[in-house]
Amino acid sequence: MDNIYDEIIMEHGMNSYNKRKLDKCDFCEKGHNPNCGDDITIEVKLNGDIIEDMAFSGYGCAISQSSTSVMIDVLRGKTIAEAKEIIKTFIEMIKREITDEKELEKLEDAIAFKNVSNMPARVKCALLAWHTMEDLLKKNGK
């Protein structure tokens, strides 16, 4: 099972499927990790209360880039409320506050980052996009 997770992280890290600019976005938010220099900008297009599309630009390590890309895949098509719950669950998983596999199922492919909690130096890398998205929603009253 860990091998599948490694493949997800590597695939998104090397290909960055969601690394692009949206033609039109409703909100964007910049995230930066001064410890390692990861720097991303997340763009979000809404359709009512649904996240219609998302993309990101920027640079950073494989963990931050793949975590951002996977987050976008997981949140695209979700309601704002669902996205907030998924973000909260991801952050709690990385902080080892949630370990129940059933509860983690909502993370879909983002569960691939579960073992990052064992690598303290990489935790901020994995969380950058998730905290940036959380900030974007709060700043825009969502």
- CATH class placement: Alpha Beta
Low-confidence segments, given as residue ranges, are 1-5
Strand count:
3
Mean model confidence by pLDDT: 90
Q: How many H/I helices?
A: 5
CATH-derived topology: Sufe protein. Chain: A
- What is the CATH architecture annotation? Alpha-Beta Complex
As laid out across the biggest beta sheet, the strand order is 1-2-3
From the alpha-carbon coordinates, what is the Rg to the nearest angstrom?
14 Å
Count of folded domains: 1
The end-to-end distance, rounded to whole angstroms, is 35 Å
Order of helices and strands: HEEEHHHH
Global structural class:
alpha+beta
In percent, how helical is the residue content? 40-55%
Shape field: globular
Content of β-strand? 15-25%
Provide a descriptive summary of the structure in words.
The chain has 142 residues and is an alpha+beta fold. It has a single domain, classed as Sufe protein. Chain: A (Alpha-Beta Complex), CATH 3.90.1010. The protein is 47% helix and 19% strand. It has a 3-stranded antiparallel beta sheet, with helices on one face. Helix 1 crosses helix 2, helix 2 packs across helix 5 and helix 3 packs antiparallel against helix 5. It is globular and about 35 Å long. The N and C termini lie far apart (35 Å).
